[in-house]
């Protein structure tokens, strides 16, 4: 099943994440937003999978700011990791796991040692130190993808789904009410899920809204994007 779910909340409290996920268990691909961190306990019910794009972004910003050679070297090594992902893009999870074991693990061993060495040399509090610390402190989470061919190297796929909201939020800064925000989230969830399942969102929404008044409530699942089929023409 492929679906996109938006959830509206009135603030960025980590409690919102807990409430939304409830008793869900699994692997969560995410950035280092503090609201996620309380989810990862000793019970291993939710396992953190780091996003390498967020680690890369810190080095990229540093390189663009002052052409840091160390940042450039980090970008090159991360580029090697993405080269493997590009090669494995159309592979089965098992084959993707195998190629990661063969090609990615040696790169990661060298990169981890290199990061530690550069951190010893870096001055505390500098942008370079912060970029290095981000990767070093989150190393386990950033590298867990290697041992499961089903896992992505980053959460770019998710961020693509968030981008329409991020780019337009200045236009709808004020939803009017909590209820309006939740309704907007529900509508955006349907639209993005339709896209994810290869549907024309406009055609899908028109069909669903036309059928809703007479469609049996007990069969409402049929109208979800992942289950939807266009109404047969009489």
What is the string of helix and strand elements?
Answer: HEHEHHHHHHHH
Task: Please work out how many helical segments DSSP would assign.
Answer: 10
Per DSSP, what share of the residues sits in E-state strands of 2 or more residues?
Answer: under 5%
- Low-confidence parts lasting 5 or more residues at pLDDT below 50? none
Global geometry: globular
Radius of gyration over C-alpha positions, nearest whole angstrom: 21 Å
Termini separation comes to 30 Å
Mean pLDDT: 88
Question: How would you sum up the major sheet?
Answer: 2 strands, parallel
Derived from helix and strand composition plus strand pairing, the structural class reads: mainly alpha
Helix content: 55-70%
Question: What strand line-up does the widest sheet have?
Answer: 1-2
Report the count of strand segments.
2
Topology:
Elements: H1 14-21, E1 26-30, H2 34-37, E2 46-50, H3 52-66, H4 69-87, H5 93-121, H6 127-137, H7 139-143, H8 156-168, H9 178-196, H10 201-211
Parallel strand pairs: 1-2
